[in-house]
Amino acid sequence: MSRPQPTTDFAELSRRAGLPLTHHRQVIYETLMAMPGHPSPEEVYAKVRRRIPAISLATVYKNLNRFLKAGLLQEVSVHHGSLRVEVNDHPHHHLVCSSCKKIEDIDSEQIGPLQVRGRLPKGFAVQRLSVDVIGLCARCSSKKKASH
Ligand SMILES: [Zn+2]
Ligand SMILES: [Zn+2]
Fold first, then answer.
1. Mean pLDDT computed over 87-110
2. Rounded distance from Cα 96 to ligand 1 centre (Å)
3. Phi/psi class of residue 81: alpha, beta or left (left: φ > 0; alpha: ψ in -120 to 50)?
4. Using the 8-state DSSP alphabet, how is residue 4 labeled?
5. Distance 77 CA to ligand 2 centre (A)
6. Which of 47, 63, 103, 116 would bridge with 38, disulfide CB 3.0–4.6 Å?
7. Measured between alpha carbons, how far is 123 from 111 in angstroms, rounded to an integer?
8. Tens digits of residue pLDDT in 14-65
């Protein structure tokens, strides 16, 4: 499956987001771009540390949050227990395994057009619609069968 890669370089993205360009941020962003899927801050930290051994998990967290606020990253979902981020800004939804917490992307077309019907609370501005399909992934459901 090919994903559209953001074409703009980080210096340009930072400038547009009004985020001062730092070496830490540059490395964190490059690391994220090389991590497909939905990494947790801990996973990002483990990779970033190979390039900046002195960096702390707190610094990685802080910068991921700055990226989220600046719109350079997307937060996958707030209710899976821990922060997961992604650079995929193509509209899509998620299949979430309730057992191992694995998150997979599915294209919007596989769910069908979504609409917000009815009146939203006053002042609420929709940024995106994202659906979580909760279930058991193939591995977890075959494990479950095997244990019966
Ligand atoms: Zn699973
Ligand atoms: Zn995703």
1. 84
2. 8
3. left
4. P
5. 9
6. 103
7. 28
8. 888 889 999 999 999 999 999 888 899 999 999 999 999 999 999 999 999 9
> What is the length of the chain?
148
Name the more confident of 99 and 127.
99
15 secondary structure, DSSP code: H
Q: Which ligand is nearest to the CA of 95?
A: 2
> How far does the centroid of ligand 2 lie from the alpha carbon of residue 74, in Å?
9
Which ligand has the shortest distance to the CA of 138? Answer: 1
Q: How far is CA 90 from the centre of its chain?
A: 11
- How would you class 26 by CB atoms within 10 Å of its CB: exposed for 0-12, middle for 13-18, buried for 19 or more? middle
